[in-house]
Design goal:
The structure is a homohexamer of 314-residue chains. Chain A has 314 residues and is an alpha+beta fold. A 5-stranded mixed β-barrel of chain A has the order 1-2-3-5-4. The first copy, chain A, has a two-stranded antiparallel ribbon with strand order 6-7. In chain A, strand 4 and strand 5 form a beta hairpin. Chains in contact: A-B, A-C, A-E, A-F, B-C, B-D, B-E, C-D, C-F, D-E, D-F, E-F. The interface between A and B is medium-sized, with 27 and 27 residues.
């Protein structure tokens, strides 16, 4: 695989196709317009300034377009910046496509779908199984495409499904060590816990919160959906309320967004499984970019801590 | 009206019919069984001990039964206690009935129903009006009978409806002073905000939390109900989500049980209206029992504060 | 009314008289001096840079002067900025005056004075009435001119009086719904609660904290003043202490600046009246600038929340 | 000095004159009245039960009376209790007096007065000196008699003056190590900081909070007094406000009762001097009763910590 | 296995050998001495009162002795109590021994030792392996006998080793799902994290905190021990500091007793493994005693929550 | 002494030798490299920009070099900045040396060493004395050179020793007022409390945290060192644990980095002595730069407060 834009060091020259993540017009101190471009490929994103931007530039360089850029990696206030020497829109002959520039889960959709199907298949309680299957079916496409969050962890295409698949494997191995745990509840809890994100968030790329996401949130959205699913499937057992409770309580505490704390054993463990998988994802991605004997960048969602990679970790 | 059990002073002798609120068996240090009875009438409740309880006593003196008691009001560790001299079960000839012993709202159901109807009638937005009317109709009986809480404020029969009616009047007068407020949203928010309590709580007397109340809570329950009502009524506008948000956010903060804080002007004001009415209810009931120049008992739900009644408040 | 500076969109050209709120000298990266001007009219204020400022410019363009400006509204880091093309000091022939550029309460002083007089007149307790009248008389001019705060809410000329007048109306309507409330205490509490701001703050425009404001604060200042007023008026009843308590406790909690929490029923309600009126003022001003279906700017004093205006609010 | 009631071990028999601190009537499980007496001498206080109390007993054994008691020290739920065998009121021939039973400061009033006079005499700033002298003179008797608190620290007769005297010595030695400190401010701050307690508390024995103490608190009371003193003495300099600030801020933080934190260097140090002296008093009194190698009782005002006395502290 | 004392219902009569966990003398209201005995077997402990205790009783019935008791299970203030009808000390002929009455880990020491040996054997980094082996060897006996805590979780004989063994299995399965984790660090962290408890606590039964436990705590104790072990083994690599950091940070946050939060990936995960295993232990033990459709007792170390067992959990 | 760079006002021209504290390369908006230099002398440090930096400039102007600069003091966004007109590296003939540019303690090393020796000499407990002497000897050079912190207080060469010496004097005078305090423990606690900083920090200038400092912290480091010292000196008494506790607890609370709060009287007082000396240092340095009647800059480590210097403080 060719080198991504974030893998160049300060001082190096780059010549790359990059996707415009966002473009904002500004006015320089000399009174002329310029564009602040956020450019990305799978390695991440970098800021670039296009000075003395013409009207054509403003039209050509907008979010979701792909450009060919030649320039230098520079250090600006401690962060990398790309100084543009030449830039042009990509054309058909360049044979580049959106998917080449966007980070996605390291597992294929087919594989994720098949794993998910298997876990649902293993459920023994028919009420739990039917509700879970119904909701996954209803939101299948979005589930396989959406990120798990706008930032912090699994914030990439298919991040939600990837997060769920990893959590399912973790749930399985914990349940085998603590056999009193109800696997059906754990699996259903894992699958449904963040499914409301497909309504809370705007989509797989340039992801923002929807109005419903802001006013109700993914937890409330999915608790409602479980209720409706049960109605449609004519299911009346206590399982409905328990599934709603699993989703409702999975943030663990009121101040973290769960109006009820976990009051079922599996709800308590679901909260931990969610945490471990999210944190491993953040830690691995942060430490990947760090050499042994160094500290990582501060990770906001981990209380702004900076993690150390021991020198004996080659 | 005759004097209630709480209106007697320490040292006075009483002879009253009282309702048994709860009865618990214990074993005295001499090894003999005794009953701890909580006895109540409309003035409140008091503890009493029935020493050397026989098997018959255990059967006769159970919750919800009415008894005739003769005894003395005593002080035990700073709280009043009723020392029983004589006790007997009431019989038909006594012509006493449950309703005589239970505190209820000071306004009749008819009056409350008519006020409520009027407020719903005044709504101009048909979506808001139809959802509100649908849900009030669905839970009309419970709404008119349930307390607003198990303790703290409006913890009496019909307390929920009484709380809502008072809040509606307050909402109306605030909306007339701040005309930018949407009265429809305010009225609907007031009517629906605590309606989930008819599922969260067990009933109008000896009220406890239901399992659904513990695991989901009245906020989540009613948010779900609004969604279902909209489905049944085939209503799809943004009003549905806004009504859900009003209920969802009415506790004001995550740590007080609202997973989203108020993000609509009327939601913010609803929170204040709820607070003012609940606090006025608690304050009036606490200060009623206090003489000018004295402090009230500590009020748990008001940060355990003890309030002062000025000497010039005759 | 003509269009204010904040009502222009980015890209539009303006030609306006504006008041200089503040002027700060800086040195550009080319070594030449420039001025950062904050320019305002009744619609609000905007930043402007005057590059290559001469000595004359420094003398002409100082706070409280009025200037004629021609320029463009631009976007700089997400905030509007005014790019100055031409600027000149205003002169007598321009016939512009300070008052044209400063936001003031939407009610005239006469009207506010007359309302205030009426509320004081309605008081029945002579001690409460005399102390209130004495203090309002002592600080009448400042009371009618000062803002209620340096920022957040009612931060405009006569904001303090306007806040008090609105609160009095709210107090009246709440007291009529909850007749156990002592109107005299409520009215006096409303009138005196923030009166210490006339000492805490520097004046009606370019408002900052005084040294006494910083070291003692408006609450302590007014509690002292009530004590002195009682001495001068030879009033000795418990009303003095109660009025001091109302002022002392009106922030509600120690961490919000009240060394004692409300311990009188009217003090508790005063705190809510203050909150509702301040929040309605902030909410109305923030939502005024927002279209249906959009979120407002974040409001710092409302926990940094961004409020939504429903699409059905035309 | 003879052995005090707290110096007896469980199992020992006592025959002592003791002061009744409080007497409360109760009804035993056999229906007969009894008295709970809190009896004290200089060593501390102990609970005693007087079973089968007659009407005469109720009249004889009331707070502030002195009794002769014979009985046994017993352990009841981990605390010492005095089992009364014989009790009788004291009479003139017993030649006992109140002062013999009440803990007081270990320094005489004369000595404290003379120290105080000396510190005031050393002040160089006449405004600070005159205000301090005026207020000490106004409250001289109470200052020399009151405790510094109802519990926690210096909760004995003359505790307030003793606390102030110790703090003055500490202030002097700190000021000599950090010569930038203004001794006048430190001394005046120490002398005035808790002087409001003579209004906040009810008196030297059986001390409770007054209504004014509850509604305003000693800080607000003394800040007002400083203002009035300045008026009476016709002093107008900044010293008045600074002295008010010293008293206002001496609790250090809003949540500890100071609406303004220390904003003057001497205010910051005053807060520390107050803390050190109060804590040394609590620690010495708690550790006095502990043997080397043991932990003290939990000390509520020190975050409920239990302190260890090292074995090498003989 | 025969029925344990906690498996009897209120009202049932018992005749059992029980171990005296503690014995405290008191004086009854009739002036006669009595003993409060805490009696236990493997099912848990129960309070019993022995009235009118003779001198012989005081000598016979002391902690660690075994008694034969006949009596009734009663309810006293909501908790079970054993009313003693007959009691006698056990003698040789009874053939009962301490170990029969004390809860121990459900896995044998041999099995635990062998598992531990295997995990240490699997370590690849010699420095980590040698330090871990050295410390386990040094404290082997205590490690296999001590509880993991005085209460809350794993508070039984060999609880510490059992907790560590379970955590090792969990660590292994998590590490196999997240291969970037360093197994050596995880295993060593698990083995050493609570090893300081063998100094912090007094022993396997009637466990209390030692003075060193109170003043330094198990975290500090073990961090010191790792330093000393490295010195003795002449190991100087960064592994020493990393192991100290793993132990130091395993409580996760300063306010939970870790002066440094986890700053190594494995330290973060260690904290979660510790939590999951401790919580599963508490949850399983609490829910064991609960029927489907009921709530457990409140669990103090789980934020005082009461957990629900769904009705479909047979 | 000649005027330091911070003593010049905005607008003044300077010609000074200055030490480069740090140098960072950037790229200007015209694409050319520039250097951001932080330049310092004993009066403090100031930022300067060197535009159009050549390769030679990059090599000449690096941290720890001394330069001769001619330029102007300007105001940039409210902070002073030095506009460079001319700059050159210093050479031997300039006869300037590092020590001339670095702030150091106002007391000589000899004087500090002699004071320290005297205090250790005064200790009576041989165990405490030997451990203290051993550790001071081990780290003598670093102890005399290191700052007490990277910022906030005593952040200058020899700041650690100066802080300790001042605290010793304060400890002595407090102990003489409260004779129950153990002077040996107080002195040893003062001397050892921050000694771990010689490992936690990188050195006397350009001070940053070491990896060990980040992962273990100075408290843990010194607690370990005390243990090792005791081993080496063959000391086994309780004094070892008590000294470790003094260091461990000196931050006062878990959330401030002490896993155990002070549980020894001298530990509690040590915490206060540390606080007073650190705060006096910060306050004196902040108020030095302020005129009477003005407020200081905000002091981050004092809760971001801005302190007032009274007008009567000439």
């Amino acid at each position: 695989m060719s080198k991504g834009v974030l893998q160049y060091d300060v001082g190096e020259q780059v010549e790359l196709f990059l996707l415009i993540k966002s473009a904002t017009k500004g006015i320089a101190s000399n009174g002329k317009p310029f564009l602040t471009l956020i450019l990305q490929d799978k390695s991440g994103d970098i800021e670039a300034k296009l000075w003395d931007a013409s009207n054509d530039d403003e039209k050509n360089y907008v979010a979701q377009n792909i450009v060919k850029v030649m320039g230098d990696i520079q250090n600006y206030r401690g962060r990398s910046q790309l100084k543009i020497r030449q830039i042009r829109p990509s054309s058909q002959v360049d044979q580049v496509k959106l998917a080449d520039f966007i980070e996605t889960a390291p597992v294929s959709r087919e594989e994720m779908t098949s794993k998910l199907t298997q876990y649902i298949f293993e459920m023994k309680n028919p009420n739990i199984q039917r509700i879970t299957r119904h909701l996954i079916k209803k939101y299948q496409n979005e589930f396989l495409e959406y990120p798990a969050a706008t930032k912090n962890h699994h914030e990439f295409v298919s991040g939600l499904a990837f997060h769920v698949i990893s959590m399912l494997d973790l749930a399985k191995s914990i349940a085998s060590l603590y056999p009193s745990l109800d696997k059906d509840l754990l699996y259903a809890g894992v699958i449904l816990h963040d499914l409301g994100k497909v309504v809370e968030l705007s989509g797989p790329i340039s992801t923002v919160y929807t109005i419903e996401g802001n006013l109700l949130g993914h937890i409330t959205i999915m608790v409602n959906e479980i209720g409706k699913a049960a109605d449609e499937l004519n299911i009346a057992g206590e399982e409905v309320m328990i599934l709603q409770h699993l989703v409702l309580s999975h943030h663990g505490k009121a101040e973290w967004g769960s109006p009820k704390p976990p009051l079922i054993k599996e709800a308590e463990i679901l909260h931990y499984i969610d945490n471990i998988d999210a944190k491993m994802n953040m830690l691995d991605r942060a430490l990947e970019r760090v050499k042994p004997g160094e500290f990582s960048e501060r990770i906001f969602a981990l209380d702004n801590r900076s993690f150390y990679k021991p020198v004996f970790h080659k």
